[in-house]
Amino acid sequence: MTPLSRLLAGALLASVLALAAHRAQALSRSGSAAAIVVGAAACAAGWGWAAVLLAFFFSSSLLSRWRRARKEAATRSTIQKAGARDAWQVMANGGVFALAAAGQALHGDARWSAVGLGALAAATADTWATEVGTAIGGVPRRVFGWERAAPGTSGAVTLAGTLAMCAGAIFLGTAALAAGFPLWTAAPVMAGGIGGALADTLAGATVQERRACPTCRSATERRVHDCGTATTRTGGIAGMDNDAVNLTSCIAGGVLALSWWSVTR
User: Fold this and answer.
1) One-character DSSP codes across the chain
2) Each residue of 74-92: pLDDT tens digit?
3) The whole model's pTM is what?
């Protein structure tokens, strides 16, 4: 099949999956539209690209449903967004991968594989860390200062979440090999996944916008706390929200994987 025919077939397949995800309340309407774009781009690059994207999507969806009630109760007052993923969230996690897939479809250069898979591995590692860390529990600790933090706090880690981060990167690298990518893919992609997820944690602890509720005096990422009070910014860069940090993580994962590939080739 030509890239154009794969693009059309991918758009159709992605539409079916996006509709199912929307009905399952995993994606909002805007999130479904963004997922179609990402899925179509992946298919245009090749069926192996589509396969690793599906590996990310299904593993992340299953983990998000695991102990959902527990996670929502623990993080409701902290995280900025909950529930169905919107377009910003989809593109923050899949946008770099989609751009790399488009580059692969147009130019066929192996470097696009390193960038795209490294970025998706970072998204996988970060998602697994968040979902498993909040599901299993444990005391989150801020990476700077090691103070206790509320579950779901950006820039905080747990042992379970850290192990899941590494597992997610390994999973995506293994999925790439199973999907037909060459053996050189494994190490750069896994390194990109772990490095990108670590970049997410560091950015969450430093430059991500931090807010607090003046009524409850509790830290949060929400502009309106669940008590109904408008929150105030206490640190970080204004507008640097969790979606921006996730995008930064994926860029870091892609750059790290490409750098590893360039040095070892």
Assistant:
1) --HHHHHHHHHHHHHHHHHHHHHTTSB-HHHHHHHHHHHHHHHHH-HHHHHHHHHHHHHHHHHHHTTHHHHHHHHTTT-S--SSB-HHHHHHHHHHHHHHHHHHHHH--HHHHHHHHHHHHHHHHHHHHHHHHHHH----EETTT--B--TT-TTEE-HHHHHHHHHHHHHHHHHHHHTT--GGGHHHHHHHHHHHHHHHHHHHHHTS-EEE-TTT--EES-SB-TTSPBPEEEES-TT--HHHHHHHHHHHHHHHHHHHHHHH-
2) 677 677 766 678 999 999 9
3) 0.92
